[in-house]
Amino acid sequence: MKSIFSYIFLLMTVIISGCSDNNKTKLVIYSPHGKEMLTEFEKQFESVNPGIDVQWLDMGSQEVFDRIKTEKENPLSDVWWGAPSTIFMRAEKLNLLEKYIPVWADKISSSAKSKNGYWFGTFLTPQVIAFNDKILTNQNSPQDWNDLVKPEWKDRIIIRNPMASGTMRVIYSAIIANSIRNTGNEAEGFEWLRKLDANTSSYAADPTQMYIKLSGNEAAVSLWNMPDIILQKTLYNYPFGYNFPSGGTVVLTDGIAIVKGAKNPEAAKKFYEFVTSEQSLILQAEKFYRIPARSDIPQDKLPQWIAGAHYKTMDLDWNMISENESEWMKKWDSEIKGKSK
Amino acid sequence: MNKNKLSGLNIVTLLIIIFFITGYIIFPLYSLLKESLLNPGNIFSFTSYSQLFSKTSFSATFNSVLLSVITVAGSGITGIYFAYAFQYHRIPLKKILTSVLLIPLATPPLIGVVAFLFLLNENGLLIKLLSSVFNLHNPIFRFDGWTAIIVIHIYSFYPMFFLFVTSGLKKIDSSVTDASYSMGASRSKTFFRIILPQLVPSITGASLIVFMASMASFSAPFIFGGSDRFLTTEIFNAKINGDNSFASALSVLLAIISVAFLILLRLYRSKKIITQRYKGTPKSTTLHPKKSFGLFSTAAAFIFAIFIVLPILTLLFLSLIPEGSLMRNFFGESFTLENYSRILSDPQFFEPFRNSVGMSLAAVVITLLIGVSSSFIITNKNLKGKSILEGVLSLPYGIPGTVIALGFILSFNSPTVFTAFVSLVGTYWILPLAYAVRNLPVMTQSSVAGFHSIDPSLEEASQTLGAGGSRTFRKIIVPLILPSILNGALLVFINSVGEFVSTILLYSYSTKTISVEIYSQIRMYNTGAAAAYGILLFLMVMIIVYFSRRTLDKSIGVV
Fold first, then answer.
1. Interface pTM (ipTM) of the complex?
2. Which residues pair with A171 in a beta bridge?
3. If contacts are CB pairs under 8 Å, which of residues 187-206 in chain A contact chain B?
4. Strands A157-160 and A200-204
5. Inter-residue contact A193 to A172 (CB < 8 Å)
6. Which of B56, B138, B226 has the CB atom closest to A334's CB atom?
7. A239 has a chain B CB within 8 A of its CB
8. Rounded to whole angstroms, how far apart are CA atoms A304 and A327?
9. Fewer CB within a 10 Å sphere, N or C end of chain A?
10. How do residues B336-348 score in pLDDT, each as one tens digit?
11. In the CATH scheme, what is the code of domain B1-30+339-453+482-559?
């Protein structure tokens, strides 16, 4: 009988005493930017700042927002790196962000930053129509938004679960905002989303599940951001191609902010400046296909593909999207999702 | 030991128990209820409840209930069939097969989900193998939605039926079945007329437990649900969308449905105890007369054993393949222990293990303290409101992990009396506390059973022979109840160490557990790392089960 206690005691001691707390400052980053980019910048930053241990959690930006809201009384993160500007606008209103004005603050257009200095834009991210290029080509895949809801794409569309994805939420909300601008009300936008739902074969639980479904042996199509599509194709040989919607696409501004009540504000500022420096932005463009939001980066230092990416930007009212997104998504979730099955 | 009076120590213990119950069971439920009755402007309203009557909430509720019914039916048929076959048919290697068939009991649900994902999704091993063998271009079938969830549910839950029905069959007097056969009744007639009616209590018990487990299931619907709605995933979505009020209303609904089944289970249990008093002397069972049926059952048992082992083998296979592109073939690559050595050497990879084990042990300690002391009071003291205490202690069994986590977030995101005036959200302790609350009923029931098994005459004998109260307690009571309590502790540990449902809502960077790590490795599609974590967790649980079973068996033998 004593033996089991000694086992448990031994196990407990070994495991708990395994704690080797070092004296480094722990800097916690919440980010949806993916492990490749996060690992790269963790290493680079730590090599310049050996006293800081960067720890990141990779989550959808909507999940980051929910977490920071939940942790309001006891903030557990320092830097929030990456979310559409619309989410940052809401976070600013809820008083979840710490004001910080980076050294390059005036090198960015006023639409890509907070008026009060709570968040700043990092990248411009165009959304694309992605497709499986084992079967489809740029010519016979959907060219514009309205192609997606045509009958020939029935059950061929795969969508990342929009509720948890900042990217998908912005795309869906942009459709509604566009409808309000063109027709004066939401109805047409929701009708389009209803048709899209009818054509959607499945909703994927996370981006990777979406990539896998998209890369199967079917003529599948999805909506996603351009950088991730190119990155996954380059790194893992996913069979992906993409089209910019011909009539104009949603280009969202990705941003960065310091979390209100961050435990390590000084280290957070260092990281903030580090990942938004000219050098870092160029590397992010070269290696991770991100288009810098800063306008002062010389064209010739940026990779060729940026100049070659020709897309039309959809003109959108970002404030309206930010204010109504939750309500629209709730309406989509309760009245449209899965209703056409 | 005085049966009736409460000593000073008892009163202090009772106060601690009441403090714990109020703080960690009642207060979180109260916070949920309160939140569900507030609209976004923090004004009292029934808005969230009126949304429950919308078509979507109705379909989520309907789907959850339907899924649970199908799960119960599927697991029931599978479990009853194999229990019957193992009892009455000649099957070789019965002992080993039984252990294999019970593997899912010790497999955390998330591991099952992940293993099936790697085996059968668009990029799964089996699909790749079949496509390359038959040179197919279109996927043979899609493992998604309802089919996927039901297969995984049956995989995880059928052992409940297997166990319950096996013990039910052991109690059947074989002279009755023999009589039936000798009077010319066919096998099926005997089964349906004689055996099945006697199994009703076992089947009812297993059905209720599986129904509640299926209602609370989150991982499978979350990963495979697609556009179908279920209550647990709807709660998660509402929370993510920032609508805490609606998430709470859904939680209240889910809790009410589950608690209703919990009450049914308790009613059934109290009835069953009465029927069990009639003790017969069952004859040893006779094997089935005809051998042909034994052949069929043998084949079925072996095929089913492969189905049980295949997902675990998939994990093992993938954990031995180096990380790299997903789009490759997977077959014909050389095996390596790279994934394991990385987990075991890198402190960051090892941290989730330390967290999971430490938190589970902490949960065991908390449930031991609260569970054992309350069951001592319940069984040994006369106390007004004892049944209320018992009822509240069993309540968490009917409250799904998602609901407990949401209640904890709402209650403990600001300092409270119960948390020594600190905010618990994001801290280490919120996780072991959530595990402890969810598992408190397991511990309480195990130790109540232990205390019940003590014959009062033993205590009296000890005292007559001159032993004092504490000596009697140490020498007589403790050895007698220890096996039940250890059994309870073991169950609490297994349930906690791979817990995912509440963990996903409560963890933070420094409190990542194995299950969260597995989930984020899947998100990044590091198959190797996710599989290696899965295998290590599986092995850890298996080793613990094996050793504690041996110790338990020994100690029971001594008694």
1. 0.79
2. none
3. 197, 200, 202-206
4. parallel
5. yes
6. B56
7. yes
8. 40
9. C
10. 888 888 777 777 7
11. 1.10.3720.10
